[in-house]
Amino acid sequence: MTRPAWVEIDLGAVRSNVAAIVEHLTPGTRYLAVVKANAYGHGDVQVAKAALEAGAGWLGVILVDEAVRLRAAGIDAPILLLHEPPSDRAAEVIEQRLTPSVFTQAGIAALGDAAERAGVTLSVHLKVDTGLNRLGVPMEGIEEVAGLLAKEPRLDVEAVFSHFAFADDPGNPFIDTQLTRFADACDRLAALGVTPGLRHIGNSAAALTRPDAHFDMVRVGIATYGLAPAPALAGIVPLRPALSLKCKVAMVKRVAAGEGVSYGLRYRLERPGTIVSLPLGYADGWVRALSGNAEVLVGGKRYPTVGTVCMDSFMADLGDEGCEVGDEAVLIGAQGDERIPAEDVAARIGTINYEVVTLLTQRLDRVFVG
């Protein structure tokens, strides 16, 4: 490690999570492990390899650069670009043997031209918008895009896919609306001669709760990492959180009653206490909103964090307890019999576990175990 603060990733947990979800899926459904954004902060190359070892057949990223990084690490598995790539990267998509998403006239034309120049047939996944209103061909544009694809003989539509707006809420009726629209889109495309061999719409939540949305493949992101896509979905399959956030105590001080701590002296001790400085801050993804609004484990016990989170450090108050410089502190994860889950951190700042782990920056070393 280059500094006394790090993110620890249990690759054994990743393998266990993938295997448990594969077992839960409808037989024959393929598993795409979403490893975009550095595998949600977990380390893309290492997580990708662990997921593939445990039964995933595909990987999913957003950026061409993310996929290039996986290829450079020797990963040969199919990689889906979940967003349509920029037109000026079309040739690189082919060179790197990537599978792009398509949903615009410009994207289809650029990829078709690049495939023609390279003398290859390029598999693409056609994204349709069934109600999220983010990316994808709108339902009213299906016939038009089918016509565009018919003019690109070098493009082979391997799959049609979409994305849920409410899959983390299994009882929401809009899920059924989207499934109906997805089926309609597939039928309309088939009538126009577009008959892909794969259909996929399910994310982590749908993989766990909606077998009617498994189709030929599911795209599993957050659950791959052992985190539930929503609190109500915890425990459906046995998942193990793979990520811990740890550091070593940088300084230990006895501070007198009445003294303040950190910028603005917003925290003042009501009695003498042991203040410890911990060597990471908002530049690492431990955001200022956690100022005096979190806990840390030291010696297997919970203690409150205090004062304003700084760019590179923050503090905790151990009261009458003590510790030594270099002792391990845990911000997310387990120590002894105690555990601070990412969900607890997320609840304190009004966000979701996805954001908490993805915010952890590259200044923090990733240390892989398991």
Structure description:
The protein is built from eleven helices and 21 strands. The protein is elongated and about 75 Å long. Helix 1 (11-24) packs across helix 3 (44-54). The protein has helices spanning 11-24, 36-41, 44-54, 64-72, 90-95, 105-118, 142-150, 173-191, 204-209, 342-348, 353-358, and strands at 5-10, 30-34, 58-61, 79-81, 99-102, 122-129, 137-138, 155-161, 198-202, 217-220, 243-248, 251-255, 260-261, 267-268, 273-278, 295-298, 301-306, 314-317, 328-335, 338-340, 365-369. By secondary structure, the protein is of the alpha/beta class. It folds into two domains: 11-233, Alanine racemase (TIM Barrel), CATH 3.20.20.10; 243-369, Lyase, Ornithine Decarboxylase, Chain A, domain 1, CATH 2.40.37.10. The strands form three sheets. Strands 1, 11, 12, 15, 16, 17, 18, 19, 20 and 21 form a ten-stranded mixed β-sheet that branches. An eight-stranded parallel β-barrel has the order 2-3-4-5-6-8-9-10, surrounded by four helices. It starts with a strand and ends with a strand.
Globally, the shape reads elongated
Number of strands: 21
CATH H-level name of the largest domain... which superfamily? Alanine racemase
Name the average pLDDT. Answer: 97
Give the CA-CA distance, first to last residue.
17 Å
Structural class: alpha/beta
Looking at the structure, the CATH topology of the largest domain is TIM Barrel
Number of helices: 11
Q: What is the CATH C level class of the largest domain, in words?
A: Alpha Beta
**Radius of gyration, taken over Cα atoms and rounded to an integer in Å:** 24 Å
Q: Report the major sheet.
A: 10 strands, mixed
Poorly predicted runs of 5 or more residues = none
How many domains comprise the coordinates? 2
